[in-house]
Amino acid sequence: MLRHACFAVPGLLGFWLLSIALDPFANLQLAQIAYTAIAVAGLTVLSGLSGQISLGHGAFVAVGAYTAALLLENAEWSLAPVLVVVTAGTALVGTLVGVAAARLRGPYLAGATLALAVGLPSLADYHGLRDLLGGANGLIVSPPVPPLSLGETFPLERWQSWICGICLVVALFLLANLSRSRLGRDMRLVREDEDAAALSGVHVARTQILAFCVSAGCAGLAGGLFAIVSNLAAPGAFTLALSLSLLTAAVLGGLGSLAGAVYGAVIVTLLPNWSTDLAQQADLPRAVYANIPLVLYGLVLILVILAFPGGIQSGVRRIGRLLRRNRKN
């Protein structure tokens, strides 16, 4: 814990300094990177650490966003308890999904989570839940007001990025300790060989369920932060594309790497904006530049896999080893 705390404190300081140097729009992007990285880090634990495939994490993000919207607007809770309840509540949903997922393997598990990603957000437009969840238009969430101690002119976007940044650092700190714990070792053993894990005394099903619980809790926290930053929880924000982009970010950064989750979140957050700006500057038709981000996703994914099969983090480690070797020589 002391080692990880030595990384967490500079991480908080660096995030604070970066947010001060950025304009309001860039702070919004920073907040988006932070909550996306939380969801990707949870997926990294599930897929990279325990070896389970999930194509439906967008559904857990939706659960977190709607729960936060209901508690903030209807129950009028304060922000900190809402984020705690959102994380715990979505973790409970993930536990229920994990019980079913523990019986599935490979493409069957991927198909089940895919169905979850497609079906769960559409419940908001179900007749019996339309009044509660706002239907296709969703729920409006009031933005968190910065404390008066920061000044009356303190930018809202910077305050939102601070909230997301603190949650990101805390989540990474807890997940890093989890990966070094006995549960983390059990997850890695289950990933490598379930039969060997069972013979070693590891409860395979329980370990897989706990992995789903932790991963869903991270996705729920990301969903709550999404609702706070975007001021909206609507089914259109939690399409299948969201689940696929989270998995893409995990693969790009490196499955099993928490640092890689941050790298992947940066790419999937900034790449669509950059590609759209470039397409607009080139005066391309809207039907063309609307699909450019998907094409770039594929190209970047192919290039990263070809250059660094283990993801960006593996490439960073390889470069670091080469630099240390050259320095010794």
What characterizes the major β-sheet?
2 strands, antiparallel
What is the terminal-to-terminal distance?
34 Å
Helix/strand order, N-terminal first:
HHHHHHEHHHHEHHHHH
- Rg, nearest Å: 20 Å
User: Which segments are poorly predicted (pLDDT under 50) over 5 or more consecutive residues?
Assistant: none
Instruction: Indicate the structural class.
Output: mainly alpha
Name the shape in a single word.
globular
Mean pLDDT comes to 86
**Helical fraction:** over 70%
Give a description of the structure.
This protein is mainly alpha-helical and 329 residues long. The protein has one domain. The chain has helices spanning 2-21, 24-49, 57-73, 79-101, 106-119, 130-133, 156-180, 182-192, 194-199, 204-230, 240-253, 258-281, 286-289, 292-307, 312-328, and strands at residues 139-140, 232-233. α2 (24-49) crosses α12 (258-281), α8 packs across α10 and α11 (240-253) crosses α12 (258-281).
